[in-house]
User: What shape does this take?
Amino acid sequence: MMTRLKAHWPVLQQPVRDAGLAGLMALVVFGPIVGVVLNGYDFNLHAGRVAALVAVVMLGRFLLSLLLQSPKGQRWLQRFDDASAGGVQVLAAGHRSALRWVIPLVLLAAVLLPFFANKYLLTVVILGLIYVLLGLGLNIVVGLAGLLDLGYVAFYAIGAYGLALGYEHLGLGFWSMLPLSALFAALAGAILGFPVLRMHGDYLAIVTLGFGEIIRLVLNNWLSVTGGPNGLSVPSPTLFGLEFGRRAKEGGPLFHEFFGLNYDPNFKFIFIYSVLLAVVLLVLYVKQRLVRMPIGRAWEALREDEIACRAMGLNHVLVKLSAFMLGASTAGLAGVFFASYQGFVNPSSFTFFESALILAIVVLGGMGSTLGVVIAAFVLTVAPELLRSFADYRVLLFGVLMVLMMIWRPRGLIRVSRRGVSAPSAGASA
Amino acid sequence: MDGLFLQQLINGLTLGSVYGLIAIGYTMVYGIIGMINFAHGEVYMISAYLSAIGLALLSYFGLQSFPLLMLGTLLFTLCITGAYGWVIERIAYRPLRNSPRLAPLISAIGISLILQNYVQLSQGARQQGVPTLLDGAFRFPIGEGFLQISYTKVFILVAAFVGMAVLTYVIHCTRLGRMCRATQQDRKMAQILGIDTDRVISLVFVIGAAMAALAGVLITMNYGTFDFYAGFIIGVKAFTAAVLGGIGSLPGAMLGGLILGVAEAQFSSMVNTDYKDVFSFSLLVLILIFRPQGLLGRPQVVKV
Assistant: This one.
């Protein structure tokens, strides 16, 4: 046994040393916070939890060091350096993805869903789609234009409160507020964006963070208008004046009576789902086109190198502002859907955590990748519903995910790919 | 000059000196790697918990005298919070030294989510507190009322001043400080001259965390209560202080902290307490728009 250990010692030396150091650090860091739980001015000891954590850290560090010094690990490290350097993957001109049949299939499933889904599934999918919308909007700002917006939730709040306040003071309903909220949010984006977009990336992050908090605090404290922490109620949406309730609240005709159907409480959600799906598809289409237009190219160019862009004659403030406003208006749309889905709005739905969650969607999906954002939005909103028992660990997992993604794949899980253009041959052009 | 104004001035100065201590962490890290340490507010929050834990442990072992208790708690909190600073740099910043600019920012936001949730999970979501250690106050009759300066506030002002003085000495007069300043001026050149810049960067994170720990102990002494969410608001405010004073400048951070603390205290006594956070955040937005280099900072020159 001893001789075998001695033979392997040179290989094991470094990992054992690393593991020891990591374990020591873990003990110092986790020891007091995890092990000594405050109870009034007194405390309870939980040594077992600390021991388990330290053991996990040591084992993890040991295996990692062992892996990284093997030839395989070395190659892995090498690839890792390449991955963080590479940007967009360019496909051949005539390239057709092997997975192209997936999109029509998903669309078909999305259209058929309301016919067989129960209320619970429907609400979960609506929430997922709202986050898809938010993710797509933030993806334009962070992923394409490279502006880290940490107050994105403010525009979402503007959309949601726009619906509630528009109904209360002006009697406007879902349909009129849908475009108006988008407009208001875009306007707010312009007002905030115009002075701050000349700033450095990190400053922008902080200013938007401050702006998001200002909006939330105002919503929380301005009792006479926003209702403070209790929030406001939001009207149910209507279809050409037809109401979805069991009995008419506004005196209008009822949807189920008009069509001679039996009353079903799902009607409201089916309606929201259908409109939301249409809006998401529209936004997807618009975004897909925009990316290929000069403005989309300008966003990406600006993200990669601002100085070079300005030297080429791009007006960086206008280019950034357009991305910022477009992202904000998408969030405004999402806010209207969220408010009518929930039936009321209050400030606790618009905390910094929400901004971080949307950012996590964009980061996980791949900065600038549309498909990635759609998948990530569903994974991050639907997975917590499925894993109810892990609900306490949700934020922790988001955090870990963000850190690991940045280390492992800063450009996201799905690499952005772009179809190349082949030069027209001489014969064809003649 | 009425009594209320003076009273709020004293309150603002105490609060501001603590903001200044936290702002040092932002300003030093920004100076050396040009990035905002988003997890710094959470480091402060951790240190508040650590100070309560340290106090509980020390009084459990029968320590009663205030100076010893304070010294022990400070030492305990400073060391362990410093370790947190080191770990944060090691996990969220060092592997990302050469990645796109947004990457370390996002990983730091990740770390701050992790720290919040981790403290909530291990210590529970309820508010925690520490007993009052230093009772009593100086009272000066002014006009009709009293100007009251509690011993705790005096202690905070003195401790913050001493902390600043020690830090200034370390940065300006020791070998270690010279290494920090060299790395701040030009990282590549410092490396060529034989300075282990990775170690210096780690050290800056540790120093920043230790200063936040000092702030954590002092604020916990003053207010007595805290929770796992305490780091966010104070983090943004300390950042405002750092920007106000000119990010990258040490005296600027302290000055910015004092100005912000006094302005906030006066605002909440004269205008409205509910909107004092809105006031600070608006101040941040306005400074960044109109004078991004701050009071003592130099304007940034972009080099190609």
About this structure: Chain B touches chain A through 72 residues (CB under 8 Å).
